[in-house]
Backbone:
């Protein structure tokens, strides 16, 4: 990020924090740190998604397309049921169908009936889909590393562990430590 963007982002964060503190004057138990963290996570997600979109667009892929390809590529046999993808990439069954239709049309994945259960569809990455990932993922590594260049490996591990804890609690806020 350039220095001008750093200053603009810092100023934006300062304004958000000041606004949250003003809200807290009306609500004595308003959790300013938690609301600020939530906003920062959302902003970071938005900004990283924009970076990913810039890298994926020239490949003719959207972020959900990429996630489907990556999940399939990461499987031992390169395949998964659409229902498994729904949870894994946070998409509805209708969106998985739409995404997979486009990837099938491009020859990046196939869709077939399961040999174990003929009522279920199986999605499988094709050699063409694997080639696409092999061609452009290395350039994506460079950009993603650049986004986190100011952090040490230990910082990244610590943040990852904390975000996993937040994600687990946010998934089920009635667990201990979650909102009641």
Residues:
């Amino acid at each position: 990020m350039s220095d001008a963007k750093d200053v603009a982002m810092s100023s934006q964060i300062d304004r958000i924090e000041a606004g949250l503190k003003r809200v807290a004057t009306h609500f004595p138990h308003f959790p300013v740190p938690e609301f600020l963290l939530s906003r920062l996570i959302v902003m970071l997600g938005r900004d990283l998604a924009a970076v990913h979109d810039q890298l994926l667009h020239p490949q003719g892929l959207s972020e959900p397309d990429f996630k489907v390809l990556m999940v399939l590529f990461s499987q031992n046999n390169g395949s998964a049921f659409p229902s498994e993808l729904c949870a894994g990439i946070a998409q509805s069954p209708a969106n998985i169908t739409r995404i997979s239709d486009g990837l099938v049309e491009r020859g990046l994945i196939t869709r077939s009936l399961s040999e174990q259960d003929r009522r279920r569809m199986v999605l499988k990455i094709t050699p063409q889909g694997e080639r696409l990932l092999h061609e452009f993922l290395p350039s994506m590594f460079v950009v993603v590393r650049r986004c986190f260049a100011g952090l040490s490996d230990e910082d990244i591990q610590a943040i990852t562990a904390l975000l996993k804890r937040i994600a687990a609690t946010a998934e089920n806020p009635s667990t201990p430590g979650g909102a009641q």
In short: Residues 1-60 form one domain. Helices lie at 3-24, 32-56, 63-74, 82-89, 93-105, 127-147, 153-171. The first helix runs from residue 3 to 24.
